[in-house]
Every structure is written in C-alpha cells, then in structure tokens.
Amino acid sequence: MEYTDLGRIGLRVSRLCLGTVNFGMHVPEEDSFPVLNRAREQGINFFDTANAYNKGLTETIIGNWLAQDRSRRDQIVLATKLYSQTGDGPNDGRLSAYHMRRACEDSLRRLQTDHIDLYQMHHIDRQTPWEEIWGGMEQLVQAGKILYVGSSNFAAWHIAQAQGLAVQRNFLGLVSEQSVYNLRNRMIELEVLPCCRALGLGVIPYSPMGGGLLCGVLDNPSTGRRGGESTRQAIDTYRTQLQAYEHLCQSLGQRPADVALAWVRNNPDITTPIIGPRTVEQLDQNLSALELSLDDETLARLDKIWPGPGGEAPEAYAW
To answer: At 296, which helix (H) or strand (E)?
Structure first.
C-alpha cells in the first residue's frame, strides 16, 4: 500500500480510503467486519464515515469493530462528518457550536473512541457565521476530541473564505475537502481543485466510479445500485459515451471500474479516493486498481469520451 500526506499536513494516509456508507444499509454488521479486517490487512489506514449514515448505525458498526481489538484504533485515521439533521429538534443539525458539541459527543460514543482524527463538515452552513463555526471547532480541538477539520461538498469560495478567517484566528483551519469526482462529473476541476492545491488541502473524492455507472453497467445493468431508477435514466442519457467507454476498457483488457478508479488516482491533485465495497471480493477488486497506470494516449481517449469543464476557471470559459 502506498501512503501520502493529507494535503499540507504531516498526516500520512493510504492511497485508498475505505468508505463505509454501505455498512448498515446494504451490508449488515457481521458482513462489514470482514471488509474492515481485509482493508487493514491490505494496509488501508484511512476510514471514512458520517453521523448521518444510516441514522448513526454505520458509526456504531465501526465502533463495535474497534471494540473487538482496542489496538485497531491507533492503526487507523478515523474520519467522520456532521451537518445533517439527526433528530427532530431545531438544533439537531447544521454547524452551530451547540449542535457541534452534541454531534461530536454522539459520534464519539457510537465510535467507542475518545477522539476523531478528521472531523468534516458535510455541507456548507449558509446561516451560521464562520466565527461561530471556527470557535466551536477550536473548542473541540483544545478538548482533544478532534485533531483536524475538513470540509465536504464546499465550493471553492467557501474554502477560501473559511481559510482566510482561520488564518486570522491563528487556527490551522481546513486540511481537506471531500467532494464528488469521477469521469462523468468533473466540475471540481474548474475551481475546487485549484483552490485546494493553492491552499494545501488534501482532496478526498467520493463516488470515483460514478455510483456504479462506470462499472460496466451495459453488461450488467441490474447489479446493486445500478438497477435503480436514477441509474437507469443515467444509462439512457449517457449510453453512447458508456458504449465508447466500455469498448475502450475492453480493448485495454481492464475492468471499467478499475479504469475509472485509476483515472481519479492519476490526477496529482487527488490525495485518496473513497471506495465503498460491500464485500471482501469487491475490496480486492478495488485494490487491484492501485497497480493500473494509464498512459497519455488512454488519458486522451478518456478525455474525449468524458470531457471535463474545459480546464480551470476562468480560462475554461473566458480568456
């Protein structure tokens, strides 16, 4: 397993991050543990979850796995998130200092740990001022309950605004951004990736295989999430591109999912993509993509099939 720094900080994370949203939804607890064990055996040390995943059940499953062997906690970088509504109360969501404290305590209890390594804001809070957000995060850091702060689904200007105010407070601020990124959805190339590069944030893409769309859906359109109505609509919309993509993968002798994951990893701005395997077999398939490198000709052909926004802003749409 390869490891890399998470942006500008000294924390080393594996070049694949284990996403856990399926645990408790598609994967029961007893089937989640073998996947977690296999990830550690193969050197993955970065685990990502969120308090809203399956109403907290996902965090509980991870906590139960950690409780089986307390030495596991010091072998992983544990990341979770807050923002989403987790109860019926008026303060059971978003990023107020009030909710932040309670959400962190609840996550710590479910995860059965005394600290969170990377605490990520799952979405921008358009109502809560940054002075309050940073004040709340600083209190959690000072109390030893979190080590680093990350963002997720932020626009570039949100990241820049947050970092500017963090610097004024002599606070480390954001160390990473987690955003959707794959061959079909390349919008963060416009501004988010250049912003993270300039400010030294690690980039943790989720859905690198397009929610299954880039996994060979034309050959097997009814597998898992690929059989959902939204995916079937996407197949109809992108059928011509999917045909060209799967033909290219076939000519390379590679699985479409491996090519999609390798393409994301190939971007030097990317720190570690998030994978979401449901089984040990799927995890092993994802790991095989670590050995796949794409040459310039293949990258050019992929760009032709799945064109991005045209580069970075403003040159992508102006001069």
So the answer is: helix 296-305
Question: Tens digit of pLDDT for each residue in 120-154?
Answer: 999 999 999 999 999 999 999 999 999 999 999 99
Question: Residue 244: what residue type?
Answer: A
Domain membership of residue 227 (yes or no) is no
Domain that holds residue 152: 3-212+255-302
Q: What is the number of domains present in the chain?
A: 1
Return all residues near 134 (Cβ < 8 A) that are at least 6 apart: 162, 165, 166, 169, 171, 173
CATH number of the domain encompassing residue 140 = 3.20.20.100
Q: How far apart are the first and last CA of the chain?
A: 42
* 53 in active site: yes
Radius of gyration for the chain, computed over Cα atoms and rounded to the nearest angstrom: 19
Q: Helix or strand or coil: residue 274?
A: strand
Query: Residue 226: its pLDDT value, please?
Result: 47
How far, in Å, CA of 128 to CA of 169, rounded?
17
What is the per-residue pLDDT across 27-69, written as a single tens digit (0 to 9) for each? 999 999 999 999 999 999 999 999 999 999 999 999 999 999 9
Q: Specify the amino acid at residue 70.
A: R
pLDDT digits (tens, 9 = 90+) for 169-198: 999 999 999 999 999 999 999 999 999 999
Which of 53, 119, 148, 206 is the catalytic position? 53
